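REQUEST ID: PR-0412
SUBMITTED BY: lab tech R.K.
PRIORITY: routine
TASK: structure prediction, single protein chain
INPUT:
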Amino acid sequence: MVLAPAKKYLSLGLYSKVDIVSFESDYSSALGKVDTFDLPAGLSIILYCRMSVVTKPTLWIHAPVLARFIWSQWYDEILVRGPLAAYVLNVAIHWFIRVLDSTWSVPVTIQARGLAAQEALFTFNAKSSRSWFLKKLFSLRVSTLTAIEQAVYQKKSWKVPMKITAVSEALKDYLVSSFGANKDFVVLEELDITEPVSRELVQQWREDFRGYLKIPADAVVYGYSGSCKKWQCARETLFFLADKIAENQNTYGLIVTTDVIEFEALISELKISNTRLIVKYVPQKDLLPMISTFDFGLLLRLTHVVNWVSRPTKALEYMAVGVPIIHNKTVGWLVDYDEKVGAVGSEITPHPRHVSLS
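STATUS: complete
OUTPUT:
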């Protein structure tokens, strides 16, 4: 989701050159991944190593490195993804203006994609109980992330022109109400939305991949694309698919995931029949073709602000190939979409076996 908008900036002629600068705690692994990318002309990825512990001092030490890199280039605009990267950049800019060039004033766009502190809390609460010391340490981490978000999303913190792009109205509202962002400088991001695929190509993919999976052309397929993480409601999704399969002999469930082993173990644990329930891994290039076999795409989420302000990548992929989305109204962007263009999604009634989604 970082490369896609960068490629689009170049293809639309918005920029002639794009450099993606990333600070990675696992530098070797990141470098290996970058080597596999097919980068168009004008797009470069520059990696630096960073400490895995996130505190203000451990972020400060990266600022001079970034400032010197910026000094060696000539940019018309700097796009920064997320509050941590924005914090490093802001410190770098203050150092840059104070030490190197007091007249420097390149505009900055912060790409807001989620809520760092809330995401940390969400992940922590989903895990087993921790020791008193770890809880205190984690509380300090959340306080640090909150302070960083508070700082970077306020225009007064910056010495250069700044704006924010948000993925949803819900996220925009949260940044304004919780962090004091100026609503006039927060706009909705549209350039990283997955391009729609032609109906003819979708139909061809549908026929080809249903043939590959041995799914009848007239069967109804309820599909899910994603991981087996708890926050993505894997259990609820499996129960939903099992119920639909039991209702009709011509109904199939299809799970497209990188977590094949985890899903198969969960299916066994929940004692769900795998009759007409298919779990499949596909490489990224075949993801949209595989999703084209769906008649409905599932997107269930727990009720939490992290989910409410999000714009799930999977929803964009479903929409790109014209797959209606079944969701449980826990993602504000989908709720807004339904209200604007009609009921693409539909609310489901939680089954008694489902973990409560409220």
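NOTES: Residues 343-358 have pLDDT under 50 and may be disordered.
REVIEWED BY: pending
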